[in-house]
Write a structure and sequence with these properties.
Blueprint lengths: L1 E2 L11 E2 L2 E2 L18 E6 L7 E4 L6 E8 H8 L7 E3 L8 E7 L6 H15 L3 E16 L8 E2 L10 E5 L2 E9 L1 H11 L4 E3 L6 E8 L14 E2 L2 E2 L7 H9 L1 E17 L7
């Protein structure tokens, strides 16, 4: 996950509240002990540092953050959107942190997420309460013509994170080794509602689709709308059409169970 103020990709659905998802997800089989970070450092980010990033470096053994608020790091660790987190003091969304954490063994992306969550709970004394709420959302299902995504080898720990580029007036998004549960989370970050996975697809898939992003309401100015200095396509597919025609998935408004996190306790970590 990377974020930087002023990056117009947030309009395109790659960035939400300044954050771009750049991690994939795989499921642990539960046959081995939970992955933990053997070495971990958490420090305040110097005010002169303007960059912000939360990501899994290559190798599948570590997590890094630079200039990221705790709230942002929590969205990565628990794979939720910011709107699913409530409670806690104001500083969880203002103070920025630098984290370097490494395990002595390689793990899946989901194992790294879980290890990051445990690290936050230990070092920030973070205590959260989970609440399932039935709310208006988008239901992700398989189109009647069937899914069109290539199946990826689930045993492959390497993955290409879901990332995008703006090209020829459209946003192009690609990724490898993604579960549908994770893809629903990724879509949730760029839409006005959370996405609930009801595809019943249990494999790992390669993602490749393109669409014309919606622009913020009230965007004015003369001439055609621009993203990264490029004109937005006037006749390309929207995200709903792109998912159906290119991936064989359907996105419809509905109501479904969404996990919410309530922060019950949190403290700033001690110096390390």
């Amino acid at each position: 996950m990377k974020f930087r103020s002023g990056v117009v990709s947030c309009v395109a659905g790659v960035l939400v509240a300044g954050c771009a998802v750049v991690v994939g997800a795989q499921q642990s089989d539960g046959s081995k002990p939970p992955l933990t970070f053997d070495v971990a450092s958490i420090k305040p980010t110097p005010p002169e540092e303007q960059r912000g990033i939360v990501h899994q470096p290559p190798g599948g053994q570590s997590y890094e953050a630079l200039g990221a608020p705790l709230l942002t790091i929590m969205t990565v660790a628990y794979t939720v959107t910011p709107r699913q987190i409530s409670g806690g003091p104001d500083w969880i969304n203002t103070d920025r942190w630098t984290i370097e954490a490494k395990s002595d063994r390689r793990g899946t992306s989901d194992e790294l997420h879980d290890a990051l969550a445990r690290l936050l709970e230990e070092r920030f004394h973070l205590k959260i309460r989970h609440e399932k709420r039935d709310i208006p959302c988008y239901i992700l299902s398989v189109d009647k013509k069937g899914a069109k995504m290539p199946v990826h080898d689930a045993a492959d720990l390497l993955h290409e994170p879901i990332g995008g580029r703006f090209e020829n007036g459209e946003l192009h998004l690609t990724g490898q080794n993604a579960t549908m549960n994770y893809f629903a989370f990724f879509l949730s970050r760029g839409l006005d509602r959370n996405v609930v996975d009801q595809t019943n697809l249990t494999g790992h898939y390669d993602i490749d689709y393109h669409y014309v992003p919606d622009l913020p309401a009230g965007r004015g100015g003369d001439g055609p709308p621009l993203i990264n200095g490029q004109p937005v396509s006037a006749d390309g597919p929207n995200i709903f059409t792109a998912l159906r025609d290119q991936l064989g998935l359907q996105l419809e408004k509905g109501k479904g169970p969404v996990d919410f996190l309530v922060v019950e306790h949190v403290e700033k970590p001690s110096a390390n």
